[in-house]
Design a protein that fits this description.
The termini are far apart. With 193 residues, this protein is an all-alpha fold. Helix 2 crosses helix 3 and helix 2 crosses helix 6.
Length: 193
């Protein structure tokens, strides 16, 4: 009788574990589908197109791009269409980082997203723009930890190239602070605009 009860208990535990795993997979699939739909939206297409133009400007005229970033630091800011595009693309990727960090999308799903060509825009254009916008805020903080998380967890082989893109417009003090970065404080020090 004890053997039958033990077997039944073990079978119930396995069934419960499988149910939890199936529910988690279904939830991750649902969240991932929503993320893909957001990426496939007409608004995101327009935003990525606009940001890609900024990347072209950066490649063609580094000094001009630096001046553009300096203009973004002005307070009060001049309204520009690129700001809305920066915000949309930035929030997409920062939201993907948060979803991954909390297990709402799997590592495999995050790697899939990071395989998109627009991922490079995050480090070549968006992060320098986020840093410039943050300069208008008291403390000048932006969500650097989220950008670090994405670079660390993206599953790409070209992270060295992406890191070099980041460093090109990174202020010297941030390079020193990078060694002191603590992901466990993520969300408390960074601000999403």
């Amino acid at each position: 009788l004890d053997l039958v009860l033990t077997s039944a208990t073990a079978a119930a535990a396995v069934a419960a574990w499988l149910a939890v795993r199936t529910t988690r997979n279904a939830m991750q699939g649902s969240v991932f589908l929503q993320v893909l739909q957001d990426y496939d939206s007409k608004e995101m297409y327009k935003a990525l197109f606009t940001i890609a133009k900024q990347e072209g400007m950066r490649a063609a005229d580094t000094e001009g791009f630096a001046r553009f970033l300096d203009e973004m630091k002005e307070d009060p800011p001049k309204p520009r269409p690129v700001d809305e595009c920066r915000r949309r693309v930035s929030h997409f990727w920062l939201r993907a980082a948060e979803l991954s960090r909390h297990g709402l999308i799997s590592d495999h799903q995050l790697h899939h997203l990071c395989g998109y060509g627009s991922f490079k825009l995050l480090f070549s254009v968006i992060e320098p723009m986020e840093r410039a916008v943050a300069a208008r805020r008291p403390g000048g903080k932006y969500s650097k930890e989220a950008f670090d998380y994405l670079l660390e967890h993206c599953g790409r082989g070209d992270t060295g190239n992406l890191q070099r893109l980041r460093a090109e417009f990174e202020p010297p003090q941030e390079v020193e602070e990078e060694a002191d970065s603590h992901p466990e404080s993520w969300g408390r020090s960074g601000v999403i605009s």
